[in-house]
Amino acid sequence: xxxxxxxxxxxxxxxxxxxxxxxxxxxxxxxxxxxxxxxxxxxxxxxxxxxxxxxxxxxxxxxxxxxxxxxxxxxxxxxxxxxxxxxxxxxxxxxxxxxxxxxxxxxxxxxxxxxxxxxxxxxxxxxxxxxxxxxxxxxxxxxxxxxxxxxxxxxxxxxxxxxxxxxxxxxxxxxxxxxxxxxxxxxxxxxxxxxxxxxxxxxxxxxxxxxxxxxxxxxxxxxxxxxxxxxxxxxxxxxxxxxxxxxxxxxxxxxxxxxxxxxxxxxxxxxxxxxxxxxxxxxxxxxxxxxxxxxxxxxxxxxxxxxxxxxxxxxxxxxxxxxxxxxxxxxxxxxxxxxxxxxxxxxxxxxxxxxxxxxxxxxxxxxxxxxxxxxxxxxxxxxxxxxxxxxxxxxxxxxxxxxxxxxxxxxxxxxxxxxxxxxxxxxxxxxxxxxxxxxxxxxxxxxxxxxxxxxxxxxxxxxxxxxxxxxxxxxxxxxxxxxxxxxxxxxxxxxxxxxxxxxxxxxxxxxxxxxxxxxxxxxxxxxxxxxxxxxxxxxxxxxxxxxxxx
Length: 550
Fold this sequence. Notes:
Transmembrane segments: 442-466
Protein name: Scavenger receptor class B member 1
Shape: elongated
Helix content: 25-40%
Largest sheet: 14 strands, mixed
Organism: Oedothorax gibbosus
Keywords: Cell membrane, Disulfide bond, Glycoprotein, Membrane, Receptor, Transmembrane, Transmembrane helix
Family: Belongs to the CD36 family.
């Protein structure tokens, strides 16, 4: 049917177009990954309007801080030298909102910002109200006692007397509201700035997360990744400095990694993921443990190993973090960035720490499921789409000559609370991210697929038509006539004169009629010769013809 409706010329045109479309489709198919990669480069860099910047600048993902406090249940016995008993109380959940402000795009491919972090209590996700009260170690008194070690014995004794006069005790009863963000008035804290200028408590209030709500952690400068995607959100400076100043060596003071929310694209087989958070006063490196998935979004999974807070003996790379002699592994002394307060960071319940810490306290039960940390990163965009970073704040209690209140207490590292920072995709953002990543590829490959299919159809139809025309030419009976006359031309050469003009005229008329007939049947007359012949000759005159196509 196609051959009857389409001429040979049209079929050739169709074939040419089909081949052209096929070549274009294959070429685009080969170069499309490069085109898509270049487009993604613009989307994952920190620049006005990019996909990653929208999420990085004002994190829309559900973000929570869950607080778990350790309630002391044997305070009187503990002050007399008994082992400390605690029970965990929590979670007390706060919904977080992180917004980057004062954004300045610098000429050297960096951007500077501060990040305002606010937290609002969520009763429905908490075990109780912020008015719940627990017994906890008296932070100001224990910290003050430790700082007094640098003063003469007389001043220490006088300070201990003042503690008693002010009603300060080693264990205090406070509400969750007071211990978490809002704080409570404390006389030691009120007077402390007069003796130690770098103490951050300027208004006489104390809390364990003081200055961590409705505040920022300082000025960050990070690379945008516009020129080099592998540098996206890599920290360049913190508070104008390229290095920290808390630790013993340059290696430990280096500002490595991202600010955790986003980073460079992740290779197929990554090794580590490094980030910096001010609460740790250092960069932390998590190891790649495998591929994972959250709500249909494929991710790379990173976790810390047991050496992350190891001492210098167990992990030589951590030697410059050992400031006051080696301690059993599993805790980080953050006193250099906490105005020399004897504060240590660990994982909850001393997870992955030396057993000595857990054994000194009754009521701890570390396990990876409840107390482990991890970061899951979408590898194409570098977005951290599932974060659980859990850390514990501990207070190091030691004896100070002249401060009698701590005289019988067993020295040790005691837990105050642990914090679980959680950021994860919800259904909306999972669908949005999946669409942004996959829709361009789906649409582009679909269009290419249709174009490729059409080009193949055009080629096949054109070939069928051309083949049909060729077959029809082979079956034409006039071609047999052509062949017969060629054979006769070879065999017969007759030369006869006709004296009669009448006969000659008749022959000419016959020749014209034959030529017209042959022409009408698709043949070209190549050469027509009528030679003289005898009237009695039974042989027909020789006719030479060439066939031609219609």
